[in-house]
Amino acid sequence: MAAIALPVPATTVSRFAVAADHVPHDLANLLLRTPTGPYDAHIAGRVGSPALDLARDHVTEMRWDPLRVRAVRPEDRRAEWAFHDAEEFALVTAAAPITDQPRAVQVARAAARALAEALGGVAADLVTGHVLVPGAERPRFVLADRWLGDALPPFRANGRCTAPDPERDPEGVNGCACVGLRTRGLRRFGLPELQITGVACPHDLAALNVLRSTARRLLTDHWSWLATGPADRSRTVDRDVHLTEADFGDFWGSGRRVRLTTPSPFQVALAPLTPRLLTVGPPADFEGTVNDWLWGDQIPLGLYDVISSPADPSLPTAA
Questions:
Q1: What's the superkingdom here (predicted)?
Q2: Distance of alpha carbon 99 from its chain centroid, rounded?
Q3: Which sign does the torsion angle of CA 27, 32, 34, 36 carry?
Q4: What is the pLDDT at residue 283?
Q5: What is the mean pLDDT of residues 193-212?
Q6: From CA 202, how far away is CA 167, in angstroms rounded?
Q7: CB contact at 8 A, 91 and 17
Q8: Percent of the chain with pLDDT over 70
């Protein structure tokens, strides 16, 4: 079975920003006075170190563009606009060993959310490029908790796509190739990002859930490998990845299992596009396009149905 060599960084960096009308100079003291529930001790032990660096940033001095931060959901658009209009920002940077993940980024995001609450501002994840919904950071890591930047593009290319719907016209299975999806967030855990392209509009959710399942499987295997204490700064993964119902369920967290119809397991093929980007597609022996694969009987039907995250604020968060 062919394998792909992956470089594994010793350290990864994540950044979060908080937009507010006024950001005080003593951010550390403000943060330490703001309760974060299960992360209080972690924040107290890390603040001021590279693992939890706090800084003020002004719109005239910054080297990043707030306008690149977007809202995932329509109901978060006001938060997006407020972020864009702000003049002052607090930056939370976590530069931590790969073996300190995911705790390091959870602590940093908890700190950003706490500062946003204390300042009456809006927090954003600068790795995914998305605003963060208000709320506490829950202690258990769940990949569906907005760690991947996994948002669907506008269906049917915002009205520009005129391809037939395959539900009404079988020829519509390959009627377009409008959709390209890429994760934004795996790199902070030391993995390449994942990409799937050439997808027809009606198959976008299935393609997204294939990416989600693949990301969860790679992350699970990655942390198992790191737990062995390897001395190498590279590892190999199989090009052919066998996914199961458990991988899709684990993406959402163990509290919610998604029953998939057969077939399970199903298989995807990985290919390196760059050292930091892998493409995801149908198995090498599949005869047909990526859309034939997504629309056919190779992919469990459950992957067409689930889009929202159980980590959304309507469900319990931190205890």
A1: Bacteria
A2: 19
A3: positive
A4: 93
A5: 94
A6: 9
A7: yes
A8: 92
Angle in degrees, 0-180, between the axes of helices 204-226 and 245-252, rounded to the nearest 10: 90
Query: Average pLDDT in the 11-33 region?
Result: 96
- Rounded to whole angstroms, the Cα distance separating 138 from 156 reads 35
Copy the structure tokens of residue 285: 């022996």
Closest residue by Cα to residue 189 from 3, 4, 11: 11
CATH class of 9-131: alpha beta
Q: Which tokens is 124 given? A: 């954003």
Place of tokens 């606009």: 81
Phi, psi of 253 (to 5 degrees): 105, 150
DSSP-assigned states of every residue in 121-164: -EEEETTTTEEPPSSPPPSS--TTTT-S---PPPGGGGGT--PP
Please list the residue range(s) of the chain that carry CATH number 3.30.1400.
Answer: 9-131
Rounded-to-integer distance, Cα 165 and Cα 302, Å: 19
Residues 6+ apart with CB under 8 A from 22: 88, 119
Band (pLDDT 50/70/90 cuts) for residue 262 is low
Angstrom distance (rounded) from CA 92 to CA 51: 9
Lowest mean pLDDT among 172-176, 204-208, 313-317: 313-317
Alpha-carbon distance of 207 to 90, in angstroms, equals 36
In this structure, of 30-44, 67-81, 152-166, 200-214, the range with the lowest mean pLDDT score is 152-166
Can you read off the two tokens belonging to residue 112?
């950003």
Residue among 253, 269, 264 at smallest CA distance from 301: 264
pLDDT for res 189: 96
138 and 317 Cβ atoms separated by less than 8 Å: yes
Tell me which of 18-22, 101-105, 164-168, 255-259 is least confident. 255-259
| Residue 6 β-bridge partners | 235
Q: Is the dihedral of CA 201, 202, 207, 208 positive or negative?
A: positive
User: How big is the CA angle at 93 (ends 33 and 7), to the nearest 5 degrees?
Assistant: 145
Does pLDDT of 9 surpass 70? yes
